[in-house]
């Protein structure tokens, strides 16, 4: 997960950042499903970071599995 995403995010990093975030989300989803608040917040943060980069850098959004 990235520490902070700012409005001045450098889209040159989008390819590697998106790849890392999506891998992290897949690993998170592959673990035992737990619905505790902390894990839900982590999942939401990962999904939000992915969407932010896709929107900021005009990258077509891929379906994020639930």
Task: Give the SSE layout.
Blueprint: H1 14-30, H2 37-56
How would you describe what is shown here?
With 66 residues, the protein is mainly α. The two termini are 18 Å apart. The model has no long low-confidence stretch (mean pLDDT 85). It is 56% helix and 0% strand. The longest helix is centred in the last third of the chain and has 20 residues. This is DUF2524 domain-containing protein.
Q: How would you describe this structure in keywords?
A:
66 residues; mainly alpha
Question: What's the short story on this structure?
Answer:
The protein is mostly helical and 66 residues long. The chain has helices at residues 14-30, 37-56. It comes from Paenibacillus alginolyticus.
Structural class: mainly alpha
Distance between the termini: 18 Å
Largest sheet: none
Total beta strand runs: 0
Give the amount of beta strand, in percent. under 5%
Percentage of residues in helical conformation: 55-70%
Query: Uncertain regions: pLDDT < 50 for 5+ in a row?
Result: none
Number of helical regions: 2
Computed CA radius of gyration, to the nearest angstrom: 12 Å
Mean pLDDT: 85
- Report the principal-axis shape: elongated
């Amino acid at each position: 997960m990235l520490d902070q995403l700012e409005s001045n995010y450098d889209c040159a990093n989008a390819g590697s950042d998106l790849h890392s975030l999506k891998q992290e989300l897949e690993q998170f989803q592959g673990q035992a499903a737990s619905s505790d608040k902390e894990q839900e917040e982590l999942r939401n943060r990962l999904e939000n970071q992915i969407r932010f980069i896709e929107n900021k850098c005009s990258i077509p959004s891929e379906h994020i599995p639930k």
